[in-house]
Amino acid sequence: MRSKHAFENYLRTPYEFLISLCAFTFSIIFLINWNFLVLDEHFSKAIALAFFVFGIIRAYQGMQIFLFKKRLLVLKPFSMQTTDVPLSKKYLYIGRGFKWLPMHRQRLNLLSLAQNQRFLQKSFAYRFMQQRERENQNGIASMLCKIPFSPFKALPDIGGKPWIHGVGSKSERAVFLNQSNRNAHECIFGMTRVGKTRYLSIKVNQDIRNGESILVIDPKGDFEVIQDMYCAAKAAGRLDDFIISHFGFPDICARYNPLSSFTNVSEVASRVTSAISQTGEGKVFKDFAWQYVNVVAKCLHELFEPINYKTISFYIKRPEILLSLYVDKIFPEIEPDFLDKVQEIIDENDSRIDRQGNPLEPLARSVAIKRYLEGYIESHIGKDFEKLLDSIIVPLYNAATLDKTYYDKITASIGPVLDKINQTSAQGVFSFDDNQELPIIHLENIIAKKQIVYIGLDSLTNQDMAEAVGQAIIADLVSLCGRIYTRGGANQSSLCLHCDEFSNIVRDEFVNLLNKAGGAGIKVSAYTQTINDLGAAFSGNADKAKMLMGNFGTLTMLRVSNEDTASLFTKCVEQIKTRSKVPFTMSNDKSESQNGELFTTNNSDQISEEKVSIVEVNDLFSLPKGQAFVMTNGGEIYKIRIPLPKNDGSAPTSFESILRQVNKCE
Predict the structure, then answer these.
(1) What is the value of pTM for the model shown?
(2) How far apart are CA 145 and CA 135, in angstroms?
(3) Given CB 3.0 to 4.6 Å as the disulfide criterion, which of 232, 236, 638, 656 pairs with 205?
(4) CA max distance for the chain
(5) What are the CB-based long-range contacts (under 8 Å, 24+) for 108-114?
């Protein structure tokens, strides 16, 4: 059992119990029959005490072997109510577990041997009673299996191999990560229904109760997450800070315009066009789309008109209307005779006749404005040329006078992106009247006012809309990071960003976010299923997915079923040598022996070594639900069990009721 042996073996027969029994027996003999043994009474009692202590030590060692085998299959499930989750400003609680060491890999390798498979199955009596319970659910077997502390009580249906955790469960304790490491970001992988969302809830619970600024982006819109956040906010006395925007309930959810905040108005075009493909011809058309969206955004900004997806969509398709609106409002101030000259152009046209003597068609005012601007631009080429170059009027005029068929072709790529928002429930959320009583989300306010914001994208109803909305939010976050850097307030800012199913919204902007967020005080926790999902999000570009993963300082793996995903973890861990015992028998003939010996035999055990990863791919394939490996802080590995959050019953029981209460809808 000690390091002086070739390797520890908790799977052997616990002979310590036999030694302990002998020691206790000798202790009793020396204690009672000291006179028969012709010993001094005090000396005999001292010997009895020594045997008793030795027996206790051996019994304890034998019990460790017995309990180790028992713990391989039996892990007590555990859950926590909102206020039971440990809370610390310095550390983040992630569950119960232990630091994964080479000895745990050694124990798993021993369990994989054929002769040790019996330790990985419950007893015959347990299997028999469970079978009877399934066959006759109202019989005696069923009653016995339902008794709370019955040895036949069914184990939790969590699947996987419980002994992966059982090999170290003796040293199980609360596991904490340093809050200071969260700026390096964390990526969590796990297949559906194995505990990713529960892990998110435990972390968000602590962020809320620690008074942090929180933004949760959930493409699916998980109601259990909202309930957990509600309970935590109520326990922390922060319900007034809680805001929910859920695109499945546009009439009662908080409003959010991701185009309203910017340092430079050109950021608007970047956010709007971020959802356009950047491969092949898509990149060329994206550049054209950016150019004309930028023209529209600058004009709206100068006109003090609202900049949102609805106005961008309207004017990008009708540049001539925007041109008229712009010059009617701006030019009277810089050209006092503007209106008179436009009217002169109209009157001159209307006074003319064609060759047949018929009056010409009345000239549309928009056409008259274009003619006026043509002369205005030509007249300023020689004078005030720099002022003309700085003005938006030239690119706006070019857009309005461009051939309609050609213009529609080069801006066609932006139409579907805008329609994914404007033709869905997202329109009322993104393009709204500022006078509405519903709360309005501003990213700066989340940090400044320590708000708790949940945004559900309702991707199960409309995947395309959810992707477009998610990318717009991420682009706004990237801009926020830039503004924080510009103001020099990175050390004073703090935002806990949780992105569930983030493969639905990840694009190049997310890479920029990870690069900038840490220094801006934004701590990203991203949850997804496989690395292939990330590659698909980048149009099959696996290199971009790997580049993205290079920005995560902590990697958490729940059960996965994809080798590429598991290899992300196993290729980063150290290689160790494990030992196993191989029986060896040799015999030699002795045909000329004079003493009658015909042969000699030699039996021995050989110790073999094998180089393996301290965590292997199959370990990640076989994890039970709610269990994970966590690699953090430069290679430290922890094996954890994630507690199930217990709803304390204080949260409303429906989406609509919780949105109405949180967003204070009458």
Answers:
(1) 0.86
(2) 13
(3) 232
(4) 150
(5) 108/163, 108/164, 108/167, 108/619, 109/578, 109/580, 109/610, 109/612, 110/7, 110/9, 110/11, 110/580, 111/11, 111/72, 111/163, 111/167, 113/580
The pLDDT value given to residue 1: 45
* CB contact at 8 A, 625 and 159: yes
Q: Which residue has the higher pLDDT, 392 or 615?
A: 615
Rounded-to-integer distance, Cα 377 and Cα 400, Å: 14
In sequence order, the β-bridge partners of residue 577 are: 611
Q: What is the mean pLDDT of residues 307-336?
A: 90
d(CA 302, CA 200): 43
Using DSSP, state whether 534 is helix, strand or coil: helix
Q: Name the average pLDDT for the chain.
A: 86
**Burial, 153: exposed, middle or buried (Cβ in 10 Å; 0-12, 13-18, 19+)?**
middle
Terminal Cα distance for the chain, rounded: 68
Q: How far apart are CA 231 and CA 278, in angstroms?
A: 42
Q: Where are the domains of the chain?
A: 16-71, 266-422
C-alpha distances in angstroms, 285 versus 231, 279, 282, 554, 639?
Answer: 47, 10, 5, 38, 48
β-partners of residue 189 are 528, 557
Please state whether beta strands 554-557 and 522-528 pair in parallel, antiparallel, or not at all (unpaired): unpaired
Give the span between the Cα atoms of 352 and 350, in whole angstroms.
6
Decide if 467 contacts 503 (C-beta within 8 A). no
The CA distance from 324 to 259, in Å, is: 24
pLDDT of 486 strictly over 90: no
CA distance 99 to 410: 57
Tell me: pLDDT of 599 over 70: no
Alpha carbon separation from 467 to 275, 478, 506 (Å, rounded): 8, 17, 9
Exposed/middle/buried for residue 354 (C-beta within 10 Å: 0-12, 13-18, 19+): exposed
Separation between Cα atoms, residue 508 and residue 513, nearest integer Å: 9
Q: Residue 86's pLDDT band (boundaries 50, 70, 90)? A: very high
Determine contact, residues 210/450, Cβ cutoff 8 Å. Answer: no
Answer yes or no: are the C-beta atoms of 345 and 363 closer than 8 Å: yes
What's the rounded Cα separation, in Å, for the pair 428 and 425? 6
Centre a 10 Å sphere on the Cβ of residue 604 and count the other Cβ atoms it contains: 9
Task: Specify the higher pLDDT residue, 403 or 388.
Answer: 403
Helices (H), 174-307: 196-209, 223-235, 266-272, 281-302
Of the candidates 97, 263, 92, 246, the residue with the CA atom closest to the CA atom of residue 179: 92
Rounded CA separation 248/462 (Å): 9
DSSP string of 452-472? EEEEE--TTT-HHHHHHHHHH
Distances (CA, A) of 84 to 169, 233, 644: 21, 14, 11
To 10 degrees, what angle do helices 542-549 and 508-517 make? 20
Cβ neighbour number for residue 375 with a 10 Å cutoff: 11
Give CA 122 to chain center in angstroms. Answer: 36
